[in-house]
């Protein structure tokens, strides 16, 4: 296993399959127009599988497919089967907004996808429309139901909590998760690239979330992670045993244990969600580099890693949006939807 300059292992890789998305969430893609990655630059499934093999050869064991909306990429189950042939991938997961999940859940499961996370910020169709510019809230709920039917029994729901939008729905989402057989993880609103309307006042902190939930449910106990799982979410349990998670990435960042890196759909490798620049793995790949040469590039880069992006943001006195719209247009790699959330 390769470690960085702060002793963090190269354990977990997020692979963005596309920068395109079929929602326009206000905290991620609020603009009318975007600059997309050129089609010819997008890695093929074979290229992705090869890069993943180099990463697993260096010790990575967790792979999460994301985007943009990963299920907009044609035939994702074929990529899942390709990655499944790599026995060193111990945990293969996918994060989706659920919009086109219903039709694909069974084939993703059959192809060997291990875990699924669906983003669900609200149970109210009118709020969903106001926040995502889509009327298809019902499709997301159908996607979640279909995923359960397909056998995804460790289903997770990601909820970004934004003040003035959905902070009054925390308990409703827990209740919904309980009924749907899914564990909810509340995520603090982050000032990542793309969140051009972000302001500190809209962040609902972990403490505020726990206070609101305690007012409704009474005592809330810390609950550990399932065995062998290292995840950014802190888990909690209600008195009846229902569990949920909180990812306090804005008020209590977890940089010190961050073992994640991100590969964009065009093969640019980022060591931190907040990093200004990435390293192109596509160029050497397409110029004929051997696996050993790619491994050397990845090892050399990771061993020098000192990134603590979220902690550095916390030190800022006057904190606002990370990038202006102009800076995002100048380099779309700065966007969360390009980097892979
Ligand atoms: N389209 C897929 C989805 O919606 O799950 C995958 C990509 S999306 C960028 C991944 C995750 O990032 C989602 O759960 C989304 O809610 C989260 N996300 C995006 N912008 C965020 C922000 N500003 N703060 C916190 N989480 C954010």
SSE string, helices as H and strands as E:
EHEHEHEHHEHEHEEEEEEHHHHH
Radius of gyration over C-alpha positions, nearest whole angstrom: 19 Å
Count of individual beta strands: 12
State the helicity in percent bands: 25-40%
Mean pLDDT: 96
Strand order of the largest sheet: 7-8-9-6-5-4-3-2-1-10-11-12
- How far is it from the N-terminal to the C-terminal residue, by CA? 24 Å
Q: Which ligands does the model contain, each kind named once?
A: S-adenosylmethionine
Account of the protein in words:
This protein has helices spanning 45-57, 76-84, 105-111, 125-132, 137-149, 170-180, 206-217, 282-286, 291-303, 309-315, 325-330, 336-339; strands at 12-16, 62-66, 91-96, 115-119, 156-161, 183-188, 221-223, 234-237, 243-247, 260-263, 268-270, 279-280. The chain is α/β, with parallel strands linked by helices. Strands 7-8-9-6-5-4-3-2-1-10-11-12 form a 12-stranded mixed sheet. Helix 2 (76-84) links the parallel strand 2 (62-66) and strand 3. Helix 1 (45-57) packs parallel to helix 2 (76-84), helix 1 (45-57) crosses helix 9 and helix 2 (76-84) runs parallel beside helix 3. The mean pLDDT is 96. S-adenosylmethionine is lined by residues 21, 27-28, 66-67, 69, 95-97, 119, 158, 160, 187, 189-190, 192, 195, 336-337, 341.
């Amino acid at each position: 296993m390769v470690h960085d300059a702060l002793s963090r292992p190269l354990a977990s890789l997020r692979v963005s399959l596309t920068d395109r998305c079929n929602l326009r969430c206000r905290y991620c893609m609020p603009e009318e127009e975007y600059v997309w990655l050129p089609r010819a630059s997008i890695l093929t499934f074979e290229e992705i599988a090869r890069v993943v093999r180099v990463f697993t050869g260096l010790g990575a064991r967790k792979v999460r497919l994301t985007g943009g909306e990963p299920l907009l990429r044609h035939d994702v189950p074929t990529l899942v089967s390709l990655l499944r042939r790599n026995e060193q991938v111990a945990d293969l997961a996918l994060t989706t907004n659920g919009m086109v999940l219903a039709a694909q859940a069974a084939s993703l499961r059959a192809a060997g996808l291990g875990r699924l996370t669906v983003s669900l910020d609200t149970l109210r169709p009118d709020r969903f429309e106001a926040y995502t510019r889509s009327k298809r809230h019902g499709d997301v709920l159908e996607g979640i139901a279909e995923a359960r039917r397909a056998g995804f029994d460790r289903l997770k729901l990601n909820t970004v909590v934004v003040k003035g939008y959905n902070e009054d729905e925390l308990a409703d989402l827990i209740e919904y998760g309980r009924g749907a057989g899914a564990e909810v993880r509340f995520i603090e609103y982050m000032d990542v690239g793309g969140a051009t309307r972000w302001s500190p006042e809209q962040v609902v902190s972990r403490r505020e979330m726990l206070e609101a939930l305690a007012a409704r449910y009474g005592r809330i106990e810390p609950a550990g992670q399932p065995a062998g799982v290292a995840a950014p979410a802190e888990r909690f349990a209600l008195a009846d045993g229902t569990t949920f998670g909180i990812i306090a990435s804005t008020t209590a960042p977890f940089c010190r244990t961050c073992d994640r890196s991100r590969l964009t759909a065009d093969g640019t490798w980022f060591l931190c969600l907040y990093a200004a620049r990435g390293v192109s793995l596509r160029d050497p790949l397409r110029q004929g580099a051997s696996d050993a040469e790619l491994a050397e590039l990845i090892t050399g880069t990771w061993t020098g890693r000192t990134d603590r992006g979220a902690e550095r943001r916390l030190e800022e006195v006057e904190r606002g949006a990370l990038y202006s719209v102009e800076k995002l247009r100048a380099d779309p790699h700065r966007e969360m939807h390009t980097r892979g959330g």
